[in-house]
Amino acid sequence: MTVHIVPPSADLSVDPDFFDLLTGSFARLTGNSLVDEGQLAKANGPHWLYRDAPFAVLAHNTDADPRFIYANKAAQTCFEYDWDEFITLPSRLSAEAPDRAERQRLMESVTRHGFISDYRGVRISKTGRRFWIESGIVWNLIDRDGHLRGQAATFSGWSGV
């Protein structure tokens, strides 16, 4: 399977190939499942991850200034952007200017090592609300052919700064 990350007009929210890229690369890199298999047996995986997952999932592409290409409903709630706003946002803007260097080091570490776990960092919402991401996992989106398609993150906890 080769997934080509497409223009902002494309809707990857419930795209089954993109879901396979997210979940497959997570499993190959971390050795864990992003989505509980029992839950998936009861629901359509891409729809469940986008609409009902109780944890945030975001992804950005490989542009020189990476842009978000995916944010499930939990991430949209946390960051206070809707889908159309999120998928046009450069991912660096999810952190305030003083925190962007730390965020960039994180992304470079993920590129080198494939993934990191237990990430904790300050992020900023659309309205300027600052919050801590807790217990985050950030991983490379690598398709079955070994091509880097972007990076993704998931976190289940967040709290005010």
Care to describe what's here?
With 161 residues, this protein is α+β, with helices and mostly antiparallel strands. The protein is 35% helix and 27% strand. The protein is built from 6 helices and 6 strands, in the order αααββαααββββ. The chain has helices at 16-30, 37-42, 45-52, 73-79, 83-86, 97-113; strands at residues 56-60, 68-71, 115-124, 130-142, 148-155, 157-160. Strands 1, 2, 3, 4, 5 and 6 form a 6-stranded antiparallel β-sheet that branches. Strand 3 (115-124) and strand 4 form a beta hairpin. The N and C termini lie far apart (41 Å). 32% of the residues are buried.
Tally of strands? 6
Category from helices, strands and their pairing: alpha+beta
Order of helices and strands: HHHEEHHHEEEE
Helical content class:
25-40%
Q: Proportion of β residues?
A: 25-35%
Estimate the global geometry from the Cα principal axes. Answer: globular
Evaluate the radius of gyration. Answer: 14 Å
Number of helices: 6
Q: Termini, distance in Å?
A: 41 Å
- Runs with pLDDT <50, length 5+? 1-9
Mean of pLDDT? 88
Report the biggest beta sheet as strand number plus sense, adding barrel if it closes. 6 strands, antiparallel
Annotate the secondary structure layout.
Blueprint: H1 16-30, H2 37-42, H3 45-52, E1 56-60, E2 68-71, H4 73-79, H5 83-86, H6 97-113, E3 115-124, E4 130-142, E5 148-155, E6 157-160
Antiparallel strand pairs: 1-2, 1-5, 3-4, 4-5, 4-6
Short synopsis of the structure:
This protein has helices at residues 16-30, 37-42, 45-52, 73-79, 83-86, 97-113, and strands spanning 56-60, 68-71, 115-124, 130-142, 148-155, 157-160. It is α+β, with helices and mostly antiparallel strands and 161 residues long.
